[in-house]
Design brief:
The protein is of the alpha+beta class and about 190 residues long. It has one domain (about 1-180): Cyclic Phosphodiesterase, Chain: A (Alpha-Beta Complex). It is about 20% helix and about 40% strand. The chain contains three helices and nine strands; from the N terminus they run E-H-E-E-H-E-E-H-E-E-E-E. It has a five-stranded antiparallel beta sheet, with helices on both faces. It has a four-stranded antiparallel beta sheet with strand order 3-1-8-9. A hairpin with a 2-residue loop joins strand 8 and strand 9. Helix 2 crosses helix 3 (about 100-115). About 20% of the residues are buried. The model has no long low-confidence stretch (mean pLDDT about 90).
């Protein structure tokens, strides 16, 4: 039954001020084929879980607590643009992680391992840490297109992971925070 399930993912939330700095790229939208992501919906997905029985949310939260207490806060730097699958046939335009991307990849790996133990298999594609900026629904070649500029985005402190719900509303997709897990581990000086 659909009422017994919720669509979920695990993410690193992006501070509001950074979301709106990323949204400044949208102001230079010269391409009607790009469907820009609402800044409120910007995040970095670590693990997509799909439809989850409500009865399993507690198990997922226990797993996320275990991961959070094993990690130390760190700073990541957003920058650069990419496209899936590529700029010749893009479906998604995104910004990547220039600093500490390996720590984001490590978090995703930890999630795959621990959530795999309770029945949520690993993604088959290699993990590329990114924040989706736009989706493309009609064929376009952006290989020779240069975005005017990429704004200087301040570093982001990653000190927690979040379990998010994805819900489809008449106005579009709405993401709701279900629970947040602060990193507990502190390195000794």
């Amino acid at each position: 039954m659909a009422g017994d399930q919720i669509r979920c993912f695990v993410a690193v939330e992006i501070p509001t001020e950074v979301k709106y700095q990323l949204a400044e790229i949208q102001e230079h939208d010269l391409l009607p084929q790009l469907s820009w992501v609402n800044p409120e919906n910007m995040h970095l997905t670590l693990k997509f879980l799909g439809d989850v029985p409500k009865s399993e949310v507690f198990l997922i939260e226990e797993s996320l607590t275990r991961i959070a207490i094993q990690n130390t806060p760190f700073v990541m730097q957003i920058g650069g643009l990419g496209a899936f699958p590529n700029f010749s046939r893009p479906k998604v335009i995104w910004t990547g992680i220039q600093k500490n991307g390996e720590k984001i990849i490590s978090l995703a790996h930890q999630l795959n391992t621990i959530l795999g133990q309770i029945g949520y298999p690993s993604e088959k594609r290699p993990f590329t840490p990114h924040i989706t900026l736009a989706r493309i629904h009609h064929p376009i070649n952006l290989k020779n297109f240069a975005f005017d500029e990429f704004y200087e985005i301040p570093p982001i402190t990653v000190n927690r992971i979040s379990l998010m719900q994805s819900g489809l509303q008449p106005s579009g997709v709405v993401y709701t925070l279900l629970s947040s897990f602060e990193f507990k581990y502190k390195e000794t000086e």
